[in-house]
Amino acid sequence: MLWSIMSKPLDLNQLAQNIKQWGLELGFQQVGITDTDLRASEPALQAWLDKQYHGEMAWMARHGMMRARPHELLPGTLRVISVRMNYLPANAAFASTLKDPTLGYISRYALGRDYHKLLRSRLKKLGEQIQQYCGSLNFRPFVDSAPILERPLAEKAGLGWTGKHSLILNREAGSFFFLGELLIDLPLPVDQPVEEGCGKCVACMTICPTGAIVEPYTVDARRCISYLTIELEGAIPEAFRPLIGNRIYGCDDCQLICPWNRYSQLTDEADFSPRKALHNPDLLELFSWSEAQFLKVTEGSAIRRIGHLRWLRNVAVALGNAPWSNAVITALESRKGEHPLLDEHIEWAIAQQIEKRNACIIEVQLPKKQRLVRVIEKGLVRDA
Fold first, then answer.
1. With contact defined as beta carbons under 8 Å apart, do 216 and 164 qualify?
2. Is 67 marked as binding a ligand?
3. Residue ranges covered by each domain of the chain
4. Model confidence, pTM
5. Is residue 271 annotated as a catalytic residue, yes or no?
6. Residue 206 CB contacts under 8 Å (≥ 6 apart), including other chains
């Protein structure tokens, strides 16, 4: 029998309710509880790895099936507390940024402060509160920082279902939220999964600029713009560069087109408010940043981890996709010789600019982007 700090039998059902309330008070929008059994997810994970869909993310393969075995991360773990926190800012400006090729589009989760530290701190506080209540508790918080399958855990804990874009969807909140986990060694009652709500919809699959969602629930990271602009350390494959458009850090298209995001909720966290220098930024201005400027603007931001070189690489591609102008070519020329990786993308971008100049091409948005912008402007997703 388990005992509380007051030397009374521990009511696990009541404790589970307390944990959910404490989680809400800490700023999480939902808290669910599940066990550690992810054996059902192992075959899909292994197949994904076998097909090399993880690209150059070697750590994915290195950790292998450990990702489906939370109890190996913290021996004695019996339950996983799964939480979600909204991150959508009030002034997301999806459409206005996407349809202006002179601006840089940054995935909306990265406009504010790095979420990892904030969520981990709140989860640690939740663990300490449970520990204080019980008198003894082993716990460990995780926020996208360890080999753990957080989305299957969130699904099992009732936070939503896995959409065909592989993200968790929630009927009341769409998908614009972060996930976090707290591993504990208490046999709390578990929550039940919710019914999936995608049906026959394949909007996310058809809107993806690069065709990265190769089948329902399966993303080939090697084709995904988020992977190409964030995880990939080397050259972006030339075939994908025109399709990236003005997306310089991540991509939200599969979320923006999703009908469930008409119910997306705005964040209450001031830390997730967009930084002025990163919100609807001018591409030429971004390309002029020195490394010192980049580090200053991205201090405490998730963007900082890609480094100045890859940042310039991404912006160079976006400039190549921008309307022709002498200013763009001059800016691109000005950074030649800084690094071979950057030079490769600058040369490509200049070639794109010259081709537009010679053909007197008027910038035309790709059909998929045009469709996405129309959908956003009609109010299918919440867009301030």
1. yes
2. yes
3. 12-93+111-184
4. 0.91
5. no
6. none
